[in-house]
Structures are given as structure tokens and as C-alpha cells.
Design a protein that fits this description.
The protein has three helices and six strands. The chain is of the alpha+beta class. The chain folds into two domains: 3-78; 132-189, Head domain of nucleotide exchange factor GrpE (Nucleotide Exchange Factor Grpe, Chain A, domain 2). It has a three-stranded antiparallel sheet. A three-stranded mixed sheet has the order 2-6-3, with no helix packed on it. A hairpin with a 2-residue loop joins strand 4 and strand 5. The longest helix is centred in the N-terminal third of the chain and has 87 residues, at 14-100. It is elongated.
Length: 189
Amino acid sequence: MTAYDDDARDTNTPDNDAMDYDEQSPGMEGASEQGDLRAALAAARAEAQQFRDKYLREYADRENFRKRQERIMQDRERRAKRDVLLGVLDALDNVDRAMAHQETMDREGLQQTIRMLQWQLNELLKNEGLSPVPTVGEPFDPYVHEAVEQVASDAYDEGTVVEEVRKGYRQGDDTLRPARVKVSSGGRG
């Protein structure tokens, strides 16, 4: 070995120390930076998992709320139908009682029974929010009247309802069933 070779192998020289530091430094910084990125990725994944879990819980809560509201609406509808049917059954019971006594009932008693039944059914409809559509003497309104015939009439102006063929009903502002009516075409001549 020559002195030159010994100098080349001497790693304690200032040039070799600087070179070793520069070569190791980017590697250590890269490892440190890579570790930071891995930690940031792990934190982002954990946060994403938390958001996903929160989303799934919120979605499940919303679905449960929707299903609960549907059940409540179905229960309300069922109760409303039940109440109407009970009212109809009461009227039907009165008809059955009248039919059981039909042999002993005179014409006046039968008429009274029919009027009572009509009153009972009208009260049931009124309690459900139904009201009859006004007809005779009213101007024809295609939203609540259904014209079945046009008749000449001196008593009513043209376009006025002169006769009700079938009763119509409204529920609030909505027409449940239009009234079938005859409408005046004015005077005969």
C-alpha cells in the first residue's frame, strides 16, 4: 500500500465526512418524510372511516325515521277508516232493527226510520268534513257540477242549475264527487 492508498481509505478526512453526511442526509430526510406521509395517510384513513361510520349511522337513523313515519301514517289511516266504518255500522244496525220490525211498522214509521237513517249518515259525512255541493238556483260551475242535461226554463236564467240528479260532495276545498245536475238553457221562446 502506498501513502496515497492509505489516504484514499481514510474515512476521517473532512471531504469524506461531508460526503457521507450529504449522502445520508437525503436518505434520512426521505425516511422521515415517508414516515410522516404514512402517518398522515393513516390519520386520513382513520378520519375517513369515522366519516363513513357517521354517514352509515345517519343513513340508518334517517331510514328508521322514514319507516316510523310510514307506520304512523298507516296507523292514522287505519284508525280513520275504522271510525268511519263504525259510524256506517251504527247506521246499518238501525236499518237491521227497522227491518226486524217491518211487519208491525206502518208507512209513517218506515218514513221516520228512513229519515233517521238519512240524518245519521249525513252527520257521519259532516263529521268526516264532507259537505253537499249547493245546486238548485246556483250558477253552473264545472268544478263542482256535472251537467247531464240542458233544459228550457222560464224560472231560471241561462246557465243556472234547475235540478239535482245526484248529490255532490266537497271535502274542504276539494270536490270529492261533482253533483250531477240539469242546467237551464233560458226561456222557451
